[in-house]
Design goal:
The complex is a heterodimer.
Chain A (H helix, E strand, L loop, with lengths): L2 E7 L3 E8 L4 E4 L9 E2 L1 E4 L5 E3 L1 H9 L4 E3 L13 H6 L14 E3 L2 E3 L1 H20 L3 E8 L5 H13 L3 E7 H13 L3 E8 L4 E11 L2 E12 L4 H18 L8 H20 L2 E7 L5 E7 H14 L1 H10 L9 E5 L6 H11 L12 H14 L5 E4 L6 E4 L5 E5 L7 E8 L7 E8 L9 E9 L10 E7 L5 E7 L4 E3 L4 E2 L5 H11 L7 H30 L6 H19 L3 H14 L1 H16 L8
Parallel strand pairs in A: 1-10, 10-11, 12-17, 14-18
Antiparallel strand pairs in A: 1-2, 2-3, 2-4, 5-6, 5-7, 8-9, 12-13, 13-14, 15-16, 19-20, 19-22, 21-24, 22-23, 23-27, 24-25, 25-26
Chain B lengths: L3 E2 L2 E2 L69 H4 L10 H15 L9 H21 L2 H11 L17 H19 L4 H42 L3 H34 L1
Helix pairs in contact in B: 2-3, 4-7, 5-6, 6-7
Chain lengths: 615, 270
């Protein structure tokens, strides 16, 4: 069994972390560029090869039509849901999309979970390189306000990346776990999580019990389409307006649009530190867009975005039956909380300085790693009790939604409903499951429809009990029992959005041809290469030693060398990469004295005939 | 393919939820099995229940006293029994929370990640029941409603919104004000009239809120009488009367709460 990790699958960046058993603390794993931040960008080559992360981000500038960012915005959504995003984001939705969005990248078409899976695979390979061991299970974080379809899409992405998703954890709750561990906090805590594409607020109560610390979420709220992306888009619309006033239309220059976006994001970062910044940007016609932006002007542009976060904050407090003054700690999470206006707004609202000691980019991944530690059994004194962000209901007569599990119910949560027929010889009962706070079905999110089949008979005879259960990941499970027959009643629930199981299986099978090499196989190849190089180098050194210094090699050293060579050859015949690596190390040790003598000889040759002061 | 119809709901089969009375289409109650709780047993009469693993008698406990394995939920377990509590309506909330936390540590799916498929399912069942039970019992109104549901006292005909006579005048006036407000909006904003109507609505709102508080207080009083009746072993007829009173308070309360909510909505919209 391989390792278990925690993953923050973010809109802009994704991270992977693990619970370090020796230190009892979570740690982020850096990638090949030295940073733990993996850009959530995926790009497809002309030959169909896929890259994710930093390499893909670089291609945003050179091959924007083959590259996608912010795919998290599309997770678990239907084509009709994303019309607004399409005005702003360069997503190329395939016209054949029905209930699942399909995105065109070059000449291939992918669903959002498949694209997210490429990001997860990239992170998985970072961790496997780091551990020199396989990684097969993960805790993945999602925005607290994600609905069932968005959660299922995230879980599908994990599966497609070859990971068993042990649990989905809400991002603000994960952050609270990491903070709690770090600061030993107690009491009522508000986590304000403003990321690249999503906003969440969670109110928690941290309680010490004799069994350990309980992190109990009291309420949560948010907006799954509100984030730093919106700030970037505001800056872009200002800049593009001004550029078109200069007589340049960027619509025909997608590469330039991406470069402009990059320049404006850099300006946004500068405005978090400095009172003003300057954008100098070369336009396709040779002219330059030159713009000084002051903090005050910037604040004016983004104030409406920051204000939009406050309605969910008020609602979450009301649902927790708390006043803002009753919150004892405020924690800031997510890159967008670096924006000074955000900090000021939060500080003023709660009347206290928020905590931001932990890196806001890393804290969610760290929390996910802690939960992974809990599920592996390594962390025993922490328990997370989270809630479902949205009410679950079923459609009744007149299109009215009957709520069966209210929002902010601690999960797992369940509700049983008893159904019967209304007319003679009715053969089925249609059930429509919805999520949301509105009264009418048409205003709520459709989760699934299914039909209970009933044997024909007089009305009211059938008695079918349906159990709706929201599991600890916030995902709905439905089961039914025929009370008259006293047995389990089979039902097939078709998701309104997203992939069904058969489709996930099909993609998994198809993806094998594109999948990266199996980890241990790759390790074996690398270890064998290393062994061959080592054996070859040893042989060469021994041959040279006989020419340069015949008879000088001590007998015991020669015996040790011969033994190490034989052992390595024997390991090489097998397929255990760890064994091969171990004997490479043994041979390496055995050749040290020989290498040292050869080096000394080489040096004395170089210095021969030279006086000491000449050296 | 036969005719497919919209569902009929039979809420008697599941745990009654606080908001049931808001959805009259769901009040089609056929389940209505009366539970023999008049004499208020605190634990289920489940001595015959045995452990699926070692066959020891479990008495409906969360874990088998002999082998320690998590147990299936016996049919008919009620929320009070789940917490090891009597069916009394006055609850020590900090103590309820303490029990909730303690049971969470033991029943949560986190503890069963490496257990068998069956045990994982049982943990899911039990921990969801724990959360459902805590959500219901910590809310005094939902608690009364649940207790009455167990006693078969919140069935069709007994569960409906009742307009309290003393509020009828206000309700008529409220409807009139709402109509006029709508007209004023449709015929273009008449600031003076809108402000006047707003004032009336706010006054009505205050009245409704105080009626709601009265209903809550009355419910608390009758709940206390119920608990005393249980302690003193009062006869079933008296208990039934108390339950009928609580039922009627709940019906009234539900009507008033709807008034408060709809007035709030209108006020928020002006």
């Amino acid at each position: 069994m391989g390792r278990t990790v925690g993953i923050d699958l973010g809109t802009t960046y994704s991270l992977i972390a693990y619970q370090d058993k020796l230190e009892g603390a979570p740690k982020c794993i850096p990638g090949p560029y030295g940073t733990p931040l993996c850009p959530s960008v995926v790009s497809v080559d002309a030959d169909g090869a896929i890259v994710a992360g930093e390499a893909a981000r670089r291609r945003l500038l050179t091959q924007p039509e083959r590259t996608i960012y912010s795919v998290k915005r599309l997770m678990g959504r239907g084509p009709a849901d994303v019309q607004e995003e399409l005005k702003i984001f360069p997503f190329r939705i395939d016209p054949g999309s029905t209930n699942v969005i399909r995105v065109r990248l070059g000449d291939r078409v992918f669903t959002p979970p498949e694209i997210s899976a490429f990001i997860l695979r990239e992170l998985k390979s970072w961790a496997e390189d780091y551990f020199q061991d396989s990684v097969d299970r993960a805790v993945i974080t999602v925005p607290a306000y994600f609905n069932d379809a968005q959660r299922q899409a995230t879980r599908d992405a994990g599966r497609l990346a070859g990971l068993e998703v042990l649990r989905l954890v809400n991002e603000p709750t994960a952050a609270a776990l990491a903070y709690g561990l770090h600061e030993q906090k107690r009491g009522r805590v508000a986590v304000y999580d403003f990321g690249g594409g999503t906003f969440d607020i969670s109110i928690l109560k941290l309680v010490s019990t004799t069994d350990g610390d309980i992190y109990q979420v009291l309420s949560t709220n948010g907006d799954t389409h509100l984030g730093g992306d919106d700030i970037d888009n505001t800056l872009q619309s200002v800049a593009r307006g001004e550029i078109s006033a200069q007589g340049v239309d960027l619509a025909t220059h997608p590469e330039t649009v991406q470069e402009l976006r990059k320049a404006l994001i850099a300006a946004k970062h500068e405005l978090s530190e400095a009172g003003k910044t300057t954008v100098k940007f070369a336009l396709p016609n040779g002219a330059v867009y030159f713009r000084e932006i002051t903090r005050a002007e910037y604040d004016g542009w983004i104030r409406p975005i920051v204000e939009r976060t406050m309605a969910p904050v008020r609602q979450a407090l009301a649902d927790a039956k708390l006043a803002s003054a009753e919150i004892e700690e405020v924690v800031l999470v997510g890159g967008s909380t670096r924006v000074p206006l955000v900090r000021r707004t939060v500080t003023e609202f709660f009347g206290r300085r928020p905590h931001a000691e932990l890196n806001p980019d890393e804290v969610v991944a760290l929390g996910a790693a802690v939960q992974a530690g809990i599920l592996e059994g390594g962390v025993k004194d922490m328990l997370l009790l989270d809630v479902t962000p949205l009410s679950l209901g079923i459609e009744t007569m007149g299109g009215v939604v009957a709520k069966i599990i209210p929002r902010n119910s601690t999960i797992p949560a369940s509700a049983q409903e008893l159904f019967t027929t209304g007319v003679e010889n009715q053969t089925g009962i249609d059930i429509h499951v919805l999520q949301g706070e509105r009264e009418l079905a048409k205003d709520c999110r459709s989760l699934a429809r299914f039909q209970l089949k009933v044997p024909p008979g007089p009305p009211g005879l059938a008695r079918i009990e349906v159990k709706f259960l929201i599991d600890a990941s916030g995902i709905l499970q439905v089961s039914a029992r025929d009370l008259r027959a006293g047995k389990q009643h089979s039902i097939e629930v078709l998701p309104s959005y997203g992939l069904d199981d058969a489709e996930v299986e099909r993609i998994l099978e198809e993806s094998i041809e594109y999948a990266e090499q199996d980890f241990s196989e790759r390790q074996l190849i690398e270890a064998r290469n290393e062994a061959e190089i080592m054996l070859h180098a040893t042989e060469k050194a021994l041959a040279r030693e006989q020419v340069e210094a015949p008879g000088e090699l001590p007998a015991d050293e020669l015996r040790a060398l011969d033994g190490a060579v034989a052992a390595l050859r024997e390991a090489l015949a097998g397929a255990d990469y760890k064994r091969i690596r171990a004997f490479v190390d043994v041979l390496n040790q055995a050749t040290m004295p020989l290498a040292e003598r050869m080096m000394n000889r080489a040096l004395s040759t170089v210095f021969e005939g030279k006086r000491l002061d000449e050296v | 393919m036969g005719e497919v119809r919209r569902p009929f709901f039979l809420p008697g089969g599941g745990a009654p939820l606080p908001n049931h009375e808001e959805f009259p289409s769901r009040l089609f109650d056929l389940a209505g099995q009366d539970h023999p709780i008049m004499s208020a047993p605190s634990t289920t009469a489940a001595t015959s229940i045995t452990c699926g693993n070692c066959s020891a008698a479990t008495g409906g406990a969360h874990f088998c006293p002999a082998c320690g394995k998590i147990q299936p939920l016996p049919p008919g377990t009620d929320y009070f029994a789940f917490f090891g509590l009597q069916r009394k309506l006055a609850l020590d909330l900090p103590e309820l929370e303490r029990r909730f936390h303690s049971l969470s540590w033991r029943l949560h799916p986190d503890n069963f990640m490496r257990a068998s498929e069956l045990e994982r399912q049982l943990s899911l069942d039990r921990s969801s029941q724990l959360n459902d039970a805590y959500r219901t019992l910590r809310d005094p109104v939902a608690r009364v409603e649940y207790m009455l549901g167990l006693a078969g006292m919140r069935k069709e005909g007994q569960k409906k919104q009742q307009a309290p006579p003393e509020l009828l005048e206000e309700v008529f006036e409220l409807n009139e004000s709402l109509d006029r407000l709508r007209e004023a909006r449709e015929s273009g904003e008449n600031a003076a009239e809108t402000a006047g109507l707003r004032g009336k609505l706010e006054a009505a709102q205050q009245k409704f809120e105080s009626s709601l508080a009265d209903a809550d207080q009355e419910l608390t009083q009758v709940s206390a009488q119920w608990d005393r009746a249980l302690d003193s072993g009062t006869d079933d007829a008296t208990k039934k009367k108390l339950m009928e009173r609580m039922n009627s308070i709940l019906n009234r309360r539900s009507y008033i709460r709807n008034l408060v909510e709809s007035t709030q909505k209108v006020l928020a919209g002006t």
